[in-house]
Structure formats: C-alpha cells, structure tokens
Description:
The protein is an alpha+beta fold and 299 residues long. The protein has 3 domains: 3-86, Winged helix-like DNA-binding domain superfamily/Winged helix DNA-binding domain (Arc Repressor Mutant, subunit A, Orthogonal Bundle); 92-161 and 264-291, D-Maltodextrin-Binding Protein, domain 2, CATH 3.40.190; 163-261, D-Maltodextrin-Binding Protein, domain 2 (3-Layer(aba) Sandwich), CATH 3.40.190.290. It has 9 helices and 15 strands. The chain has helices spanning 3-16, 19-26, 30-44, 60-86, 100-117, 169-175, 222-230, 240-249, 278-291, and strands at 49-51, 56-58, 92-98, 121-127, 141-145, 153-161, 163-167, 189-192, 200-204, 207-211, 215-219, 236-239, 253-255, 260-261, 264-271. α1 crosses α3 (30-44), α1 (3-16) crosses α4 and α2 packs across α3 (30-44). It is elongated.
Amino acid sequence: MGLFRSMQVFVMAVQEGSMSxxxxxxxxxxxxxxxxxxxxxxxxxxxxLNRTTRRQSLTDFGTSYVEQCRDILDRVAVADRDAExxxxxxxxxxxxxxxxxxxxxxxxxxxxxxxxxxxxxxxDITLTDRNVxxxxxxxxIAFRIGELPDxxxxxxSLTAYRMMICAAPDYLVWRGTPKHPSExxxxxxxxxxxxxxxxxRLSKGNEEVxxxxxxxxTVNNGQAVRTAARAGxxxxxxxxxxxxxxxxxxxxxxxxxxxHLRERPMSLIYxxxxxxxxxxxxxxxxxxxxxxxxxxxxx
Length: 299
C-alpha cells in the first residue's frame, strides 16, 4: 500500500471518529481502511489507534503522528494546486469505464472527436456491464446506464437510453407478429441478463402495459442478444442505437413502434472529492456536448 494514501486514510479515520465513517467518506470498505492503518502501524512499529468494537482513540504517538500527517498532506495539496494552476492543457492518462454495448457502438466512434480536442490525453477504457466501483478500482470517470443510488458520486445527466423491441422477419413468419404488447407472453424472448428480471413497461396515450415475458434465453452481452435475434431465436428489447441499422437493413423488424418504452437514464459519474484536473474537465465537457446533458444542470 502507498504510504501517502495510507496517511490520507489514517487522517480521515481520526477526523471521522471511526473506520466505518471514514470508509463512507473515502468510498472504500471499512476493512480496507483498517488495512491502511495497520500498514502504517507495521511500518512505524507502534500502535496509532486503540480500537475496540465500539470506539477508537489515538495513542500518544498517534496524536503526534496524525498532526505530522496533516502537515504533509497540506503541503502536498498546496503543491498540487500550484501545479494545476500552471497546467491548463489536458494531458496524462485518463481511466474510464462504460457499459459494453454503449462503449462499443457509441462511445468508441465518438472518441475520434475527443482525441482531436485532447491529443495529449491517453485513454485507458474498460467496457463492462458490471457496476464498477470507480473509487476502489481507480477509475476517473464512468458512463452509467440506470439508477444511481450512490451519493458519493457526482452524476451529470446525459440523454436517456431509448429502447426498442424487435424480432427477425423469419421468426415473425414462424410465430406470427404480435399486435399488442400483452401477446408477448406467448413468444420466445431473448433477454439481457442484467435487466432480465425487470418487466417491460410500454405506454400509448392513456394506456399503460407492463409485461413480464418468459425469457427462453438470457445472455450477459448486448451484442450477443442482438445476434440471437437476427438468428431468429426470439423477440428482444435492446437500445435503439444498437438495433437501428438492423431495422433499416431489414434484418430485424421493430415491434410496437407506436408504443413508448420506458427510457433508461444515462449518466456520467465521478467521485465528488476528485480534483478537477484539465483532463477530467475535458472529458466531462466532451461527453456532455456529445451525448446531451440536462440543460438545467450547471457545467
């Protein structure tokens, strides 16, 4: 573990009065906080905190050491601010993560425009449909589709993810074309695993329908769901941005085009204590301009 990071964690544990409270502020697990403090104690050869199941208190040496840590951290913060003030150009590595389908189909093509704006920024991108803990896993920023329960994060709203229900022409010849969403209960459905338990909600005028179709196949990859539909395996609901080209090419047929499907919110998230470096500012500005932000949200 890095000495500087362990000092930060130790100071926060003292400031907050407990390791669990420090864990919430730092965006890490209480066990990880304890490991940082233990690493410092092992390095120094003495105990810094007296810990019981209900409380903690500084040892005599811990009282002196925490003030030295605060002094070191303050000096580093001043140096960082001075460096940031003198650096106005975005440069260095930026780590980001995004959902697989959005990342492959939407984000990657758009990054050519970002690279033209920030050529000295190198991008380390992880595409995954897992909700990554950006703090503990060391990401600067993430695109997230769905609700955001984590108040540790700053979220900038992007254009909502519009969904589409489709099936292959051959499948519709075989099973018939459903005329109403309620008829989906008698059809084969290929589901995207992270969302397979959620009902499909559709509305048209004053009519609202909630359908919980039986998933004959579930897959944990949006591209695979799309391929399964083109192969005639069943009906799918996937992002319109992914399926539009297949519909235009006649490989898929959009079902219920007059019905409105519940959109999925999309956000750009980053840790609220993250310093706003030029490279972080540059990707935030780019994403908001490229993918559409809430116009009422301040830049």
